[in-house]
Amino acid sequence: MNEWNVVGVLVVVAGLFLSVGAPVIRLNSTITKLSTLVEGLRDRQVQQEQNNSDSHRRIWKHNEEQDAVLNDHETRITILERK
User: Fold this and answer.
1) d(Cα 34, Cα 83) in Å, to the nearest integer?
2) What is the largest CA-CA distance in the chain?
3) Residue 30: how many CA atoms within 13 Å on its side-chain side?
4) For 71, which DSSP code?
5) How far is CA 1 from CA 7, 8, 13, 14, 49, in A?
6) Using CA atoms, how far apart are residues 63 and 56, in angstroms rounded to an integer?
7) How far apart are CA 72 and CA 66, in angstroms?
8) Nearest-CA neighbor of 43 among 31, 35, 55, 53?
9) For the whole model, what pTM was predicted?
10) What is the rounded average pLDDT of the residues 63-68?
11) pLDDT tens digits for range 3-60
């Protein structure tokens, strides 16, 4: 091969890289961004589920406390009615 053939081959390879490689690199970058976004959404979902669970526990505890107070009042009323 002479010098011009080598240069021609290098130009063709560079052209192929620019026409194929650059879009692939952009696609890889887009995939990375999407993966990061999905991971962030998963983290938010886990946090939201934890918050919901905590809220449920607090409401359940409050309801149990209110039930105990109501039972106490009902017991007092029953005692007073008997007197």
Assistant:
1) 73
2) 119
3) 6
4) H
5) 10, 11, 16, 19, 67
6) 10
7) 10
8) 35
9) 0.55
10) 94
11) 778 888 888 888 877 777 778 888 889 999 999 999 999 999 999 999 999 999 999 9
CA distance 31 to 71: 59
Q: Which residues contact 1 (CB under 8 A, 6 or more apart)?
A: 9
Q: Which two tokens stand for residue 51?
A: 């918050």
Residue 45, class by beta-carbon neighbours within 10 Å (0-12 exposed, 13-18 middle, 19+ buried)?
exposed
- Both tokens of 56, joined, read 């449920």
What are the start-end ranges of the H helices in 1-83? 3-16, 22-82
Q: What is the DSSP letter of 12?
A: H
Tokens of 67: 């039930």
